[in-house]
Predict the 3D structure of the following.
Amino acid sequence: MENVHGGDIYQYENVTDFSANINPLGLPRGVKMALMDSIDKTVHYPDIHCRKLRKKLALEYGVKEEYILFGNGAADIIFTVTTALKPRKSLILAPTFVEYKQALLAVGSKVVSYELKKEYGFQVREDFLNYISADLDMLFLCNPNNPTGEVIPKPFLMRIIEKCHRNNVLLVIDECFNSFLDDGEMQSAIKEVAQYGNLIIVNAFTKLYAMPGVRLGFGIVSNKRIHEFITRCSQPWNVSILAQEAGLAALEERGYVQKSKELIAKERSYLIEEIEKAGCQVYGSRANYIFFKAKAGLFEHCLKRQILIRDCSNYEGLEEGYYRVAVRTHEENVRLIEALQR
């Protein structure tokens, strides 16, 4: 299967990877220790209910334990949701994370795309509400969106949630990059889950805790019937002992999270300013990555300098010349800017 994502360091060796939006501070020490300390436990099957992690995560987000379900990364949750509920007609943004469409097409859903236009800064506009009607079964939103880093403001998001509720549309909101927002808690829809049974929040430990290779994602849904359908379609033991122990340790890393947010906020501002100085058009970019328009061929230009960036031309709704780069350490970011200035 052709790799259409960032992070392909196996094909492009010895590169500085700006193509995957991972916390530049790397795996927290506490998570590393937990992974090493739990090696001997792998002679047993993992807890199929993730009891300890479920309890701790429920406290972290202020939701009921029974709302939470776990998966082998956020992508596992996305595919399990579509497999369980089999929507006949679905709505996604364009451009957005490619897994939504892939998962929907895999179950035979008719997929309609709402085009995010560059003349409006790739933002979701008022007319989006017209796309939500009773003949729609499922809507996927990525907030902040990938690759644009644009956020649907909470007041408008609430109008979307309300219209989906009135029309019995299942709304799946992917908040995997919410933690990198300056006002992430305010923009999150997690607190709305208890009130809206048609709402599913998807998130993961991947980006914030720099553990994509561990694979640990979770969903939050209050509707017992929907929760049961999803659980039935999940593989047993889909979250390893290592992943569960890593998740428990990660939730203790409050100092690491604060330090990460401060670093990313500072370096994000630096990158945006310097990328614009280099003559590129920056859009959105409110999370831990920068989305911009530059000259065609920038991917190959950077690769020659051992820098791997994300060519976004394969996203629906985008063309050659759109790129995404992760916010990394200052030294790495300086290297990227130097390559861009060349």
Remarks:
- The mean pLDDT is 97.
